[in-house]
């Protein structure tokens, strides 16, 4: 309903639509946001919001963008540009920032995997790109090799191109599986510890056989250095999520690496339509938002941020451990993924007779609602907490509510 008050509010948002565009873009973000109509859309829809004490989960909508990133997205929404031109120019800046030869903004790490592989398969030939995913009889290569220990669900991204994924269990098996149908070798950085062939050897083997190699590093910042570590190691293509630690748009990602493959990957991307990548669209808003999120991520004081997380974890840990029967431990997971201070809380079921499922339900149903993560190894009497997706101050709420829930006071 348009009341007079809302109308005035809406009018103050008009600069965003044209006319006084210059004025809107110089407004500090908070004022620009204040000028926007104040509708509580989630409340209107009855959608629950919550404190995210779990981490960067797609099901929980990933991460929150910084005001500067939101301002860039709002800025991008106000003008038309050519999609290829913004990808070219933002890509150049991104490449420079992370010391890569070339860079493309994709709709996530998953699509970076699919699209990077299309570039390998098609080369700079649009007609070949249009053949995917039906490779049989085309003369295009048909196989990608990876280690069985790296078989994560996201490896499905490779299959979307039509290739067959060959899984190997040893270095010997890897070298034996390479044949004239092999298009690429694929490595999952988070699983480095599990596979027999480690990250440095893997790229050497690929290059010894004149094959390109791709690495999935989706959730692998921090540390920030990972943004250039693997291109510098020689990986031809490196895939990151935009909406995890970098806190860019959740539907964005980065494909970094060799110009030769990434330019070819662009042939399978919008605006080109007769391709398997047409549905993996990112528009100017995500491209610019991704670039700006990366800029701010690189500028951030990572040491200070780490200390902030440790302090928050410590506060929650002490509150939980003050309940008899509850044990806490702060760890930094050894895997490359989600390499951040993580609190593991577990309890003696006799002293604290509540399952993790029931505890999570309690936290979820309270006000404000709180989401935490599962404990590792299917422990029914434990949970995990990270604070990197929380707004500063929320750790106090989580600490108090957790203590209350573990003490059966709620
Ligand atoms: C999250 C993740 C992906 C998918 O990333 P999106 O950016 O959500 O597409 C792929 N691989 C790994 C290892 C991941 O953790």
From TrEMBL:
Keyword Transferase attached: yes
The protein's name in its UniProt record: Aminotransferase class V-fold PLP-dependent enzyme
Keyword Signal: yes
PROSITE patterns, per the entry: TAT
Cofactor field: pyridoxal 5'-phosphate
Source organism per UniProt: Chitinophaga agrisoli
Gene Ontology molecular-function annotations: L-seryl-tRNA(Sec) selenium transferase activity; transaminase activity
Signal sequence residues: 1-26
Keywords carried by this UniProt record: Aminotransferase, Pyridoxal phosphate, Signal, Transferase
InterPro entries per UniProt: Aminotrans_V_dom, PyrdxlP-dep_Trfase, PyrdxlP-dep_Trfase_major, TAT_signal
Highest taxon of source: Bacteria
Limits of the Aminotransferase class V domain: 153-266
């Amino acid at each position: 309903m348009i009341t007079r008050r809302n109308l005035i509010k809406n009018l103050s948002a008009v600069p965003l639509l044209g006319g006084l565009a210059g004025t809107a873009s110089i407004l500090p973000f908070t004022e620009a946001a204040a000028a926007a109509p104040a509708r509580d859309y989630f409340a209107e829809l009855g959608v629950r919001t919550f404190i995210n004490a779990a981490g960067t989960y797609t099901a929980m909508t990933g991460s929150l963008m910084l005001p500067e990133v939101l301002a860039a997205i709002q800025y991008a929404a106000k003008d038309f540009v050519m999609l290829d031109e913004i990808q070219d120019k933002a890509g150049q800046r991104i490449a420079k920032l992370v010391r890569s030869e070339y860079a493309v903004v994709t709709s996530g790490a998953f699509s970076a995997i699919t699209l990077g592989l299309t570039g390998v398969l098609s080369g700079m030939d649009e007609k070949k790109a249009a053949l995917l995913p039906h490779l049989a009889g085309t003369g295009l290569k048909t196989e990608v090799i990876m280690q069985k220990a790296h078989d994560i669900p996201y490896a499905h991204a490779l299959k979307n191109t039509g290739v067959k994924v060959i899984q190997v269990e040893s270095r010997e098996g890897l070298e034996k599986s390479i044949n004239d149908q092999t298009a690429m070798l694929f490595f999952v950085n988070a699983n480095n510890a599990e596979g027999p062939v480690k990250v440095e050897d893997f790229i050497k083997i690929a290059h010894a056989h004149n094959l390109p190699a791709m690495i999935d590093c989706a959730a692998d910042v921090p540390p920030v250095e990972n943004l250039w570590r693997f291109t510098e190691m020689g990986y031809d293509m490196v895939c990151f999520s935009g909406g995890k630690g970098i806190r860019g748009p959740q539907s964005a990602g980065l494909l970094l690496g060799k110009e030769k493959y990434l330019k070819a990957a662009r042939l399978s991307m919008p605006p080109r339509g007769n391709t398997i990548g047409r549905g993996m669209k990112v528009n100017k808003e995500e491209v610019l938002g991704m670039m700006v999120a990366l800029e701010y991520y690189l500028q951030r004081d990572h040491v200070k941020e780490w200390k902030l997380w440790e302090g928050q974890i410590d506060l929650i840990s002490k509150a939980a451990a003050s309940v008899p029967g509850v044990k806490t431990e702060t760890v930094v997971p050894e895997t490359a993924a989600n390499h951040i201070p993580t609190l593991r809380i577990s309890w003696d079921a006799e002293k604290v007779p509540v399952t993790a499922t029931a505890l999570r339900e309690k936290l979820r149903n309270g006000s404000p609602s709180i989401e935490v993560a599962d404990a590792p190894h299917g422990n029914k009497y434990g949970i995990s907490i990270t604070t990197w997706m929380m707004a500063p101050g929320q750790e106090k709420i989580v600490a108090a509510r957790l203590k209350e829930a573990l003490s059966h006071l709620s």
